[in-house]
Amino acid sequence: MNNIFKVNEAGWDRAARVVAGIALMVLGFSGVIPGTVGIVVGVIGLIPLLTGLIGFCPLYLPFNFSTKKA
What we know:
Blueprint: H1 11-29, H2 35-54
Helix pairs in contact: 1-2
């Protein structure tokens, strides 16, 4: 249980997630995608943004996967 929040994303993976998260949030919250769908897209954009900022993807754990080299 000691490695549960260990960084498992490489630098390029983190950067891609941050860019994708910001792009989704801009599309959703700026009105480019209107209505409820826009709000949902904006909120979904928080997920890659946060995982990119902290460097940890919980979906990688069950598959014992990591883009970061040891």
